[in-house]
Predict the 3D structure of the following.
Amino acid sequence: MVTSEVKLINQGQEDEMEVWGYRPCVWKRLLVGFGAAASGGLLLLLLYWLPEWRVKATCTASPLRDARTLLLRATDEFRQWFRVTVHVMLAPGKRPFDAVPPCAGEGLSNGEGAPSLSTEQGDCCGMFPHNQLVPVHFFSHHSTKYYWSDDTQNFETYKGLEDMKVSCAGIHSELSSGPSKHLQAYRRLFFEENEIAVRVPSLFELLIKEVLNPFYIFQLFSVILWCFESYYYYAMAIVFMSVISIATSLYTIKKQYVMLRNMVAAHSVVRVTVCRGDKELEEAMSTELVPGDVIVIPANGMIMPCDAVLVSGTSIVNESMLTGESVPVTKTALPSSGSEGASTYSTEEHKRYTLFCGTQVIQSRFYTGQLVKAVVVTTGFNTEKGQLVRSILYPKPTDFKLYRDAYLFLLCLVGVAMIGFIYTIVLSIINQVPAKTIIIESLDIITITVPPALPAAMTAGVVYAQRRLKRLGIFCISPQRINMCGQLNLVCFDKTGTLTEDGLDLWGVQRAEHGRFSPAEFDPSKESLVLTPFVVCMASCHSLTNINGELSGDPLDLKMFSVTGWTLEEPTEEETALHNPIMPTVVRPPKHLASEAQQNFTLSETMQLSELSRYEVGIVRQFPFSSALQRMSVVVRRLGEKHMDSYLKGAPEVVAKLCTEDSVPESFGETLEAYTRQGFRVIALAHRQLEPKLSWHRVQNLNRDQIETNMDFLGLIIMQNKLKSESAGVLQDLQRADIRTLMVTGDNMLTAISVARDCGMIRPRDRVIIAEATPPNDVQPASIVWCYTENPDPGTSKDHQLGPSKTKLPPQDFRLEEGLGGGLLDGDAQDFHFAVSGRAFAIITEHFPEIVPKLVLRATVFARMAPDQKTHLVEVLQSVDYIVGMCGDGANDCGALKRAHSGISLSELEASVASPFTSTTANISCVPNLIREGRAALITSFCVFKFMALYSIIQYVSVTLLYSILSNLGDFQFLFIDIAIILLIVFTMSLNPAWRELVPQRPPSGLISGPLLFSVLTQILTCLAFQVLAFLLVRQQAWYHVWTPLSNACNVSAAPGGPSHGANATTGPHDHKNIRNYENTTLFYVSTFQYLAVAIVFSKGKPFRLPSYRNWQFMLACISLYIFLFLILLHPLPAIDSFLEIVCVPQDWRVTLAMIIIANAAVSFVLETLVLDIVLWRMVFSRDAQEVSQASRSPPTAPPQLANDRWASAFLSWLFCRRHRPPKACYKQLTLELRDDPTWPPTPSAVTFANPSQPDLSDPM
């Protein structure tokens, strides 16, 4: 017997899966066919829902290389199963980048009767020996093809050029001329057409998939059963509701598919110019492109149909579709020499040379004899755009405790239903009920217990919240995440454009001359500075470009260039085509300053300045800004000069390291710290005069490391980034609600700390500890130095002004229930915060994995963070059980926005498709609004679920009691309850708007929690008790007898218990269903009022929703139903009684029922509002997480009331087994551990060394 072999595919990646191989088994298939016939098709449905069972039931295990069916299982927390079929194609090679003879690509066949992918027709066997064609096994999953590899004995996917592991120089030397036609056709066998094809399923496909949902199958079963019982009206109502639900769902799904297809299809198929050899060019459709093709980028731009790397020329690209940043980006040719040329090409590392699919090339520049060329890297779904589309087409399930608990609760209801099922069968057998009736009634109890309207009811609150968010300018593409927003306990904020204004204002400049700083100057455009290297650097070191007569580019570059007053001119297409020398972009000083300068200078100086009007600087080469390098540079040449110059700008710390020591002022560190402490954004400039022997063409082949070295430090540009007016208030609201806030930015550390203090993330008295990490070297292991920053608050007490060696922060008390949220501690308490740079974060995660959870527990500022580090930080926070929100402007935050539980983009561009929420308001005021609506939606979901559960149990109790007398509820009674009461109440109780402000307490995250279970169980017992009470009392009444059509209990006062009743009981015709009787009528009255009572007590308002009396639709529905029900109870109407199949009962019994109903409502209200909300919630459920910290802060003596309260809380906690129960969240447990740890936080200037025996881990979790 072959054992099942398991392998991993996509190992280490987000979509990692386990794979097992199987082959079809004839005898197993025959058994399944027999079982399907015997079960009426139910077995096939079960196998459809469970793909792993389907494969194991019809196949036998086999080695992967021989498998015809594969079973896949994701290795993430969802563990989803998939079944795929293995196909075989014939090809002259097994890898797309294998060398094949010239004839191999002619007329290739896929081995399955599909037409040839080659443009030339012919028989493959005639052109290439058939015995040399090899079978290639492959399967497709989620728009990705996996091919069998004999080398790895596993399936692997081919993404594109990166699979060749070719160097940057190798791309220039080996691939820049493009593949031949036959090689292109061969590769197309593996990569197929270059198209991101979003197939819109037909309505029939969607219908079948929707109808085969277990819920609708259960509904179909229920409807068939009700038809057997002649409950036609109720069955028709359920069918009508289901048809509406299915139609709405199909319309929504179809619309989303069409919208996605239209978004992807726009400009996806274009005509391109492809290079064949060094000189040959031909037109082709973009769908024919394969990795390795060389395409020409036209001068007027294009929409990129693939990912391609530039090998010649430059292009200006709008990448807003991918990054959310509308600023055009300059892409330059891939380096062909130096260290970067020798490095292996990677899309991630060389993205500044890569044009991505879906982005718009605005314009490109080419010169005589040299076209702008790009080598195709990836095509189709392997492109960056394709991966984005795939993530939309195949999203991961939403993992939320509410939904997991809902399934568990439904299983409990099924268990209750099975008890009723057995009870009904036993009771019916005892009473000798016919077999048909036993089957129908026992199955009917199951359909009663599981409510058919539950899914629609559960989504109502989310739909209403989505509508309210839309009115607030917040758009949502993932409605399931709205409930998650209600649980957020930590929000990460980007700084620039999110907390602060997007634009920067120039505060001033501080030039460095002869190793010293000059006094600060505030107008760089004045004549004394116009020709200084400092201003020339400001005017030339940028990536600005003219688009339709307007300067476009990075806002920082635009601001720097505009304050100089210089002008920029770019060569036209005709100029670049006519001139053999490279025509550079030229910048010139303002003409009016030239004339003013000439008037103010002496004759000799005027002669020197006579050429000012002809002064111009040509930008020969640009090295674009790199977030990884934190700098950009240019090579320029001044008109008339024999040498070239290089100018550099970037982060001051980076620029200073690239400059000669004597040119950097000694006070550099102090000056930089002084500016950054005040919240200024500081940029450093540097200059270097290049050797005269450098030619134009040689400069084009130099890498930036050769240019950006031995620079002369020019000085600092001080930019002011103002805090948005809304930021401080919003952060204060979040902190007041104990929601923790972090800053994650790419800016300078001290600038970020200053902004964090200004906006209130760090209070004035709080200490900031900067973790400075150093990687290991030959001498010592990796280390962390803990640097305490000075407290800027002049009011700090003397105790806190001690020197670094004399101060040690005391352990802090934390509010565990609110998740270390904003930590509004006592006014005199001094808190501490960690601040970490991107470089330190990378070192700590690699060499100090045990410190990472403790660090992120109190870290508030993360500076100089790269985009992938932001994403990693979100993952680390989630790993310690934080519910993380991320708010960014979309520029470099897409990964973190997508990874967070709730990502909020402040960009309205196409990149918002990567974020669940997009705000049209460009400030963070959307965050509290989203959390408020999330909390309201979450509480609404709890209310609706509890109500639907009670609705099922109440009806279950009624039917079970009536079954004991061989009776049941009538068709129109079911109809009235389900339509007039349940649906009306459910869809109006969900309309409560969110509460006006955020509060510290947070709603429960799941249904399996103390407060919710207590609420549901007490209401169940209450309803059960009062129904049983009414059922027993009615049978004890003096006028009670077995009802017959001739009974008239309303007139019993005249002749109570008279003999005529006995005659009626024996001679009158009986209803064969026994619907009309006193027990049925009594339980109908009591149960209908119970539905309303639990709806009102469950419809909670403050502190997460507005009170129910503010929800006029719900109040109108409840009042109308109460009036109607009391009317038919106390003043019966014959027409209504006949319609609802209720019988007439004496007036005194009606009054008794009214008293029972009022008592029932009072008990429900007391249990829910007084006992649960006031006593238990305050003394048990909200205190268990704070018990330890409160004990540590408790005074020796306490007032009697406080002491009594504490004793009561302790007793109730003991009673509910919640005494000393440790918190479940990892960050809460860690907080308790660190509370009494004397070594945390580390002392000032302490050094922590990595354990050399410990293996380095890149992922702390």
In short: The CA atoms of residues 276 and 926 lie 53 Å apart. The chain is about 40% helix and 15% strand.
